[in-house]
Specification:
mainly alpha; three-stranded antiparallel β-sheet; 44% helix; globular
């Protein structure tokens, strides 16, 4: 049959449908995407995979486990496994971490690279995490410790690698779990940032930023786009007529298409200025929106960002060498004190929307979050706004101390402020120390309170808990209406009642006690 799909579509509809491509040759029948371990988007890619299948069958090297069968488990080192994970999972599936996977894998490979994969145990990973918590040199700064979030990123990557190894049958079980029990847990991290950008700070930041960085700051504050989404934006993604920026799925973190309205005048001016080249002509649709002078993609702009932040706070940047990591210790400490990250501009965009009454669900869609719980972390209200919100409780009422000593004038007021015993108890608590008299080691106020308590209980035991306990113990033999009457100073009407505690049905008591 060669190249085919298992579906009911015909001709071009079959070529464009989402069903998987299959290939067969000399009795060998496989799913081409699964066998080649990569995504197949069209018929041309499926045909290329089928050609590889035919070559493997003719040469006698076909392996049903895949185009590149895994090495033997007993001889597979962690370094070799990491390379297979990178090629067959991260790069084959075009994951977003593909650009930084080597950097992420480096500390893990340095620790476990030469060890056999099957020899990595739970205790080894626990020791590795303990070593990550030790002080180290970070960005040329000595005695720095990794944050819990940085440690968790390493743990999450290694956990996923081990789970992937179990799925590929490299391992029988992952060292992170034993059955349903989690053996290694993530570190607790407080990742709720409260950094806000004031209008004055924003003005100074734009004043000291170079033109290309100034345009990126405005775009970040007025669209909330991530850094990677901005750098991948092309003029063909901007709808001038509909005033909308359309982010392609392959450029977003969630791999989903997202539309962002062009809602401010300054953002419109920035996009119009970026669209024109040096000769005043419009750039083509495939040109990058944010690029350098010659139209090349912008790699990293961290040095320009650090310089603008320091200058905006009246600090002169000083460098030991080129690159933002080569700041002098004094300037680096000042930058840490300012504590302004590029991603804070995205937080500022979300917070300003919420402050202007935009529903959180709409903010979620504008930011491209899959869950509104993530969006709540971006809602950082200013303290003055919280004070205004709490101030809405003010109704103009005042407190007068004389009101507390005012006499009651009606039984209704007495019922609202408490029973006769409760009022007497409050008065007894306010009695002065001069009223003390030795009467069996008790004060005069306590003696009076006990007498009133005895009257209130109808001359029974002075301990209310004792009365309640004795009444509860005898509920099966004493009518409920008579027991309840012992604790009530007003007429009581009984109704039919049945429960698990009182299985017998009570008779109607329609008369007042």
């Amino acid at each position: 049959m060669g190249l085919y799909k298992i579906c009911e579509h015909q001709d071009r509809a079959r070529d464009r449908c989402e069903h998987i491509w299959w290939g067969s040759f000399r009795g060998v029948r496989v799913s081409l995407a699964k066998w080649a371990n990569r995504e197949i988007h069209n018929k041309a890619e499926a045909g290329a995979a089928l050609d590889l299948l035919r070559i493997a069958v003719r040469n006698g090297t076909f392996d049903e486990r895949g185009l590149e069968p895994p090495p033997e488990v007993t001889t597979l080192t962690f370094r070799e496994f990491a390379d297979v994970y990178k090629q067959r999972h991260v790069l084959a599936k075009r994951l977003a971490i593909g650009k930084t996977i080597d950097y992420r894998l480096k500390p893990i490979i340095d620790r476990f690279g030469d060890r056999l994969l099957v020899d990595v145990k739970t205790a080894d990973i626990e020791d590795f995490i303990a070593d990550l918590k030790e002080p180290r040199v970070v960005n040329r700064q000595p005695n720095r410790t990794l944050s819990p979030a940085s440690i968790n990123r390493v743990i999450e990557l290694m956990r996923h690698m081990m789970n992937w190894a179990v799925g590929r049958e490299y391992l029988e079980r992952t060292p992170f779990r034993r059955g349903t029990e989690t053996l290694i847990r993530k570190q607790h991290e407080d990742n709720q940032r409260r950094r806000r950008l004031s209008e004055e700070e924003e003005t100074r930041l734009l004043a000291f930023a170079p033109p290309f960085l100034r345009s990126m700051i405005i775009a970040a504050l007025d669209t909330g786009m991530r850094q990677g989404e901005m750098l991948a934006l092309r003029f063909g993604d901007i709808d001038d007529k509909g005033q909308v920026i359309v982010l392609r799925g392959e450029t977003t973190k969630s791999r989903r298409r997202r539309a962002i309205p062009i809602s401010t005048t300054r953002l419109q001016a920035v996009l119009h200025w970026l669209r024109l080249d040096a000769a005043g002509e419009k750039k083509p649709d495939e040109a990058l929106v944010f690029s350098d002078e010659v139209g090349e993609p912008i790699g990293r702009f961290r040095t320009a960002w650090v310089t603008a932040v320091l200058k905006a706070h009246d600090i002169k940047p000083e460098w030991k060498a080129y690159g933002w990591t080569a700041l002098t210790p004094a300037c680096h400490e000042q930058f840490r004190r300012i504590n302004l990250h590029w991603h804070d501009l995205r937080h500022e965009y979300a917070s300003r929307l919420v402050e202007r009454g935009v529903p959180l669900a709409q903010v979620r869609d504008l930011l491209g979050h899959a869950s509104i719980i993530t969006t709540e972390r971006y809602d950082n209200q200013k303290l003055e706004n919280l004070q205004v919100a709490a101030g809405k409780l003010e109704s103009g009422k005042s407190f007068d101390v004389s009101d507390a000593n005012a006499p009651r004038t009606s039984p209704k007021t007495d019922s609202m402020n408490g029973t006769k015993f409760q009022v007497s108890f409050k008065k007894g608590r306010k009695s002065s120390q001069s009223d003390r008299s030795e009467e069996g080691g008790e004060t005069r106020a306590n003696v009076e309170l006990k007498k009133e308590l005895a009257e209130w209980l109808g001359g029974r035991d002075l301990n209310p808990d004792t009365v309640v306990q004795r009444a509860v113990n005898g509920l099966r033999s004493v009518p409920v209406c008579s027991v309840l009457f012992q604790f009530s100073t007003s007429p009581l009407r009984c109704v039919p009642f049945r429960s698990a505690v009182f299985p017998h049905k009570m008779s109607h008591c329609v008369s007042h006690h």
